[in-house]
Amino acid sequence: MTTVKIGIASQEQMRSRFLAIAKGELKVKPSDPKIWFTSMRSLSQVLSDENRALLNAMRESKPQSITELALLTGRKQGNLSRTLKTMCSYGLVRMEKLDHRVRPVAMADKYQIMA
Question: The pTM is what?
Answer without folding.
Answer: 0.85
